[in-house]
Specification:
Oligomer: single chain
Number of domains: 1
Structural class: mainly alpha
Strand order of the largest sheet: 1-2
């Protein structure tokens, strides 16, 4: 696995990777970082091999695990929080989970917001 040295580019790639997973509505979940579609939605760690449904925060964690984290995850989380404009709690994953779990937040909205954030992150790295 090759870790991308530029944290800005890595943040954008993590956001895109997470977004592409969440574009499939069956792969999105609420109220937990990750679940498995088998066993009636059993709650699992986002890094577990059988995790196949993710909330926004869980998808970012899984992407960082798959792609390697060279500092991009923190930037991706920070920029996504700025984009979604939610209260920033001490544990930043909680802010993303709060937004993800709102009834009006759809998988398509989560994915689109992540893709827009990735584009914005790259534009600021000029």
């Amino acid at each position: 696995m090759q870790i991308i040295e530029n944290p800005v580019e890595q943040a954008a790639l993590l956001l895109e990777s997470a977004a592409f997973v969440l574009l499939v509505p069956e792969w999105h979940t609420k109220r937990q970082f990750a679940r498995t579609r088998e066993h009636s939605g059993l709650v699992v760690n986002p890094l577990a091999p059988n995790a196949d449904c993710f909330c926004a925060a869980g998808a970012l964690q899984a992407a960082a695990h798959e792609l390697g984290d060279g500092g991009g995850l923190a930037l991706a989380v920070e920029e996504l929080i700025a984009t979604i404009n939610v209260p920033v709690w001490t544990k930043q994953d909680a802010s993303i989970a709060y937004w993800n779990d709102k009834p009006e937040t759809t998988p398509e909205h989560v994915a689109q917001t992540m893709l827009e954030t990735a584009t914005r992150v790259r534009l600021y790295d000029i």
